[in-house]
Structures are given as C-alpha cells and as structure tokens.
Amino acid sequence: RDGMIGDIYSMGLALQALESTSKFYAPRDWDCEQAFSVVYSHDYELPMAIAQVLPALVGKSYLEAASLDCSADVALSPTLESSTSPNLGTTNFPRATIEVHYSVINTLRGQHFHYTIAVHVPEGSKLLKVLQVAEEKEPEKFSFQTEQTSWGPMVVSINKVAADTNDRTYWQFLSGGEPLEEGVGTYKPRDGEHIEAVFSTY
C-alpha cells in the first residue's frame, strides 16, 4: 500500500528479504523505488527499527553481515544515491501546544466503558505523553500500564482492564478508524487528532 510493506516496523526486514531474493520475482519486477521512498520519509527513532532498515539501505541483508567490510565502498540502495538520507533518530523540538482528543473504549470484558478527554501537549510529543496527561487529569478513567519491549513501550492495561494472551485480547490504538502504524512511544499525534484505544481481540 503506497510502498508500505506491512507496517513501518516490518519494512526493514521486508526490504532485506526482497533485495536478497530479487531473482525470484517473475513475471514482474518489484517496485523498490516506492518502498524505499517510504523509508526515506520516515523518522526512525527506535534502535530496533534502525538496525533492521540500515542493511537494506546499503543493499545488504543480515545474511551478509559477517562479510561486510565497513571500510570499503558498498553499493547503495536503489534510490539512495539520488535521494536525501533518511532521517534516522532526529529529534523534533516541541514549539507549540496542540490539542488531542483521546478515547478509551471497552465493550469486551467486565463493566463496559467509553471515556473521552481532550488534552494539551507540546507539538511533537509522542502519544505516550497524551496518555500520561490524560491519566494525570482523570486517573479514575485513564490510568494505564505499559511493558517495555525492544520496539518501545507497549500498553498492556487501561482503566484496570488488562490484555491477556490466553483470551487473545489487546489494546489497539486507532486514528480515524485506522490502526496506528507506530507504537505509543514513537507516534506523534497531530493537532485536533482523535486517538482511540479500543480493547480488542485477535
């Protein structure tokens, strides 16, 4: 979809796989230009995501890591020579305050609820900041817990309703009805955006 392979988290490994097995694409070529344009335009911050996308940017894969000579010239990715470098790990400093509408919805377990709050955070803040401000304002409705993963913090409980692998439940974050492609530790809400945390099954 528009060059995206899965989501931004899976792009690095997908590009490595596609670059390494390009001779098997028949009868049409893979449009790598479009996929790499997604990588160039994304602001990668998580070390895990950066580690997975960097090999593809130099036309390599993890399989070639042992033989990679970093002191020698290496072939660049298909469009790297004609494009600006990707913005890896750049910090955007907050400049103004934005308003974000945040809802938590549970219709699956226990007492159902649907709460909405408007919070103000500095422009450029991550979604995690929105959750923190909401909890500070109304802890009886918007309390939450996270677990740290290699991909950043993952929300495992909201308003004392916890995700459970046994019943295949989790907290899904959406904007405009579409799942977010980044986690709460990296996604940056826009001014006026409505973020929903929906207790869901998979």
UniProtKB/TrEMBL annotation:
Main subcellular location of this protein, as a coarse class: secreted
GO cellular component: extracellular space
Residues noted as binding cyanocob(III)alamin in the record, renumbered to the chain: D7, Q52, L180, Y202
Gene Ontology biological-process annotations: cobalamin transport; cobalt ion transport
Transcobalamin-like C-terminal domain boundaries: 124-196
UniProt GO MF annotations: cobalamin binding
Top-rank taxon, per record: Eukaryota
Compartments reported by the entry: Secreted
InterPro entries found in the cross-reference section: Cbl-bd_prot, Cobalamin_Transport, Transcobalamin-like_C
Keywords for this protein: Cobalt, Cobalt transport, Ion transport, Secreted, Signal, Transport
Protein family membership: Belongs to the eukaryotic cobalamin transport proteins family.
Stated name of the protein: IF factor
Gene (UniProt): Gif
